[in-house]
Amino acid sequence: MCAQKTKRNSVIFAALVLMAACTLLLALVGERSNLKNPSGSPLGSPRLVSVQEVPDYGEVCAPEPPSRNASMIAALQEKNLFASFQETAVHAASPETGDTAEVTRPPVRTIKDTYPIYSSIAVDPLRDEVVLQDTNLFSIKVFNRLDNTTPNAEPAQPKRVIQGPHTLNEYNNGLYIDPQTGNIHSVAMDTADSMIVFPGGANGDVAPIRKLNTPHRNFATAVNEEKGEIYITIQYPPKVMVYRKEANGDEKPLRVLEGEHTRLYDTHGIALDVKKNLMFVGTWGNASDYRVAGTGKFYPPSINVYRLDASGDTAPLRVIQGSKTRLDWAGGMSLDPDRGDLYVANDVGDSILVFRETDDGDVAPARIINGDKTGLNHPAGISLDLKNQEFWVSNMGNSSATCYSLKADGNATPVRTIRSAPLGRTSVKFGKPQAVAYDSKREQYLVPN
Fold it and tell me: CA distances (Å), 345 to each of 62, 248, 394, in order?
C-alpha cells in the first residue's frame, strides 16, 4: 500500500514544528541582544547558507522488507569510499542578495594515476587464470594465465573485472583462491576492516557472498585447506588471526598470535607449510605500544617461523634476520613445500628473495632474482604455480605482473608479462595521500603519501 499521503503529512507536521521553534528562538535572541554584525543584520537572524537538491521520488510505496544480508550490504555501500566519489549538485547563497548559484564545478587540473597499481596476485592453475588486486582503481582483474603482453603490444585487457560500489572492494590485498570453488578471498589493508569473498567467475559490480569483519590494517592471507582455516596478518597492532575458512559477519577468530614474545613488529606476508606444521610470517620491524606515548622502536626486518597452531604470546621457533638477508619492505610470501623454498616479494629491494625454509639467523638468500631484465618494479605480491612450475609477481611500480620459472635466478627474463599500462611507464604510486601543500617558490605540490 502506498505511503505518499502519510509521508506528506509527516513532512508538513515536521516543518510546522521546525518553524515554530525557529520563531521562538529568534524572538528570544531579539530580546536579549541588539548587537549587529558587519553586514548590519542582527546576530541570530536567519540567512540561507546552502541548498542541496533533493530528488523527486514521485509515488513512494512501502518496499518489501529486505533480507538481513541485503540490508547489511546496503548499509555498507553508504559508508564505503565509492559514495565519496559521487557528485551531487550543491548551491550557495549570497548573504547580501540571497541569490543562489551552483558551486559544483570540475577542477582546473587533476593529478591522479589512471592505471592499475597491483598490490597482490594469485594464480589459479586449475582454471588457467591470474587474478590481480588493483588498489588504485579498487578492482580485481582476472587474466588468462597464458596472456603475454609483448613490448610492442597495447596494454592487456582482463577477461573479467570485479569493480564498483556493490563489491565493497577498496584498498584491498592478500588474495587467495579456493582451489575447489574458485572463490576469491581479499582482505582490506586500511579503510574497510574486512575480508570479502567473491564467487568463482564473478564479474562486474557484484556484492561479495561473504564479508568477515576483522581488525584494522589487514595485509595477507594463507589457508590450511586440510583444517579449513584461514590466516590473516594484521599490520598494527601486530598479530596473526586464524578463522574458520567459511567465517562470516562478526564471527570471532579460532585463535590469535600476538604479544611481546612473538617478535611480531609491523606484520605483513605469511606462508604455511602444512606438511611440516610451520608458519612463516614477515615483519617490517616498526614497533610501538599504541597505549603509551613515546614507545616507538625499530628492529631489523625479519621472517619469523612458528608452529602452525601457535597462539597467544608464543615466541618464534626461528628468526631469519640481519643484513645478509637483504629484506627490505618484504611483502607477499609463497612456499614451495616440495623443494623447501620460501619465495619473498622484496618491495623496496626490487627483487625476489628465495630462502630455504630451514634457514635461521643472519643468512643470505639461496637465490636472488633482480636486475634490468626481470621487469621487477616494487614487487609486492607473489604466487607459486606448482602445477606449471612457475611463479607470478605483482609489480606496484609499473602496472604489471611477471611470470618466471621456479628455477629462475639472477637477472632472469620473465617467461611472460601481463602489462596494464604503456611500456616504460612508472606508476604515480599514490597510496592514500592525506594532505597537500603548495610550494609557491618552486611551484611544486608536496603530498605525504
Answer: 53, 30, 9
